[in-house]
Amino acid sequence: MTGATRAEYCVIACAEAWRGDGEVLASPMGLIPSLGARLARLTFAPDLLLTDGEALLVRPDGTTEGWLPYRQHLALVTGGRRHVMMGASQIDRFGNQNISCIGDWERPRRQLLGVRGAPVNTLNNPTSYWVPRHSRRVFVERVDMVCGVGYDHAAGARHHRIPRVVSDLGVFDFATADHSMRPASLHPGVTREQVREATGFELAVPDEVPPTREPTAEELRLIREVLDPAGTRTREVAS
Q1: Which of 85, 110, 144, 171 is exposed most, by the fewest CB atoms within 10 A?
Q2: What is the overall mean pLDDT for the chain?
Q3: Residue 184 phi/psi, 5° resolution?
Q4: Does pTM surpass 0.90?
Q5: At what angle do helices 6-15 and 31-42 cross, to 10 degrees?
């Protein structure tokens, strides 16, 4: 196998979000997170449940594995038995996420998806995030509207947890004293200075930031030959 691309490191980083979760419902939103969840299921997380987003549980190849009625889906959500990976139009140092609007809520400059299920997701089950273009427009000092709830707004929420934020530059977590964001690993070729420049708030940067782990030869084979032989991952993260 040839060396891994940046997109493949991102798939690995997303897959790692579900490591150790056990039998929970994985709900990835977007191409790279979906490849990550399916890769995790095929390798180190065989107990993961994958859904078609409607009423079925599916195998990594998309064939039907079981039935998941909506009432049961909600029971998993509110009981902390789902781990969702969402996108973010904005995200701040404490993990507050915005997918609703840019600018003042009463007169926004741009209308986005809307709040949707973000508050329920973040308060009731673990929520990670995927950002394909790490920039100051996304990583902001303060989100224009809180949709996904961050650590500074989640007091008393039993199942609130943000395991990781994955971007095209690295992996970030909140393992600091005040639950502010820090880089947990950087993808090959990315520097701490590059991440600081692309982030609109002061990151808690450790003295040493490890590299994102390399995919194994078997993981690369699965990504390239089984999960995404058409190479669609490179449309989201260029090499």
Answers
A1: 110
A2: 92
A3: -95, -30
A4: yes
A5: 60
Q: CA gyration radius for the chain?
A: 17
Residues 48, 41: contact at Cβ < 8 Å?
Answer: yes
Which amino acid belongs to residue 128? Answer: S
Structure tokens at 177: 């004293």
Q: Which pLDDT tens digit goes with each residue over 2-33? A: 689 999 999 999 999 999 999 999 999 999 99
CA pair distance 113, 111, nearest whole angstrom: 7
DSSP letters along 168-232, please? SSEEEE--STT---EEEEE-TT--HHHHHHT-SS-----S--PBPPPPPHHHHHIIIIII-TT-T
Tens digits of residue pLDDT in 186-215: 999 999 999 999 999 999 888 889 999 999
Length of the chain: 239
Distance CA 85, CA 194 (A): 25
Output the six-digit token pair for 111. Answer: 């209308």
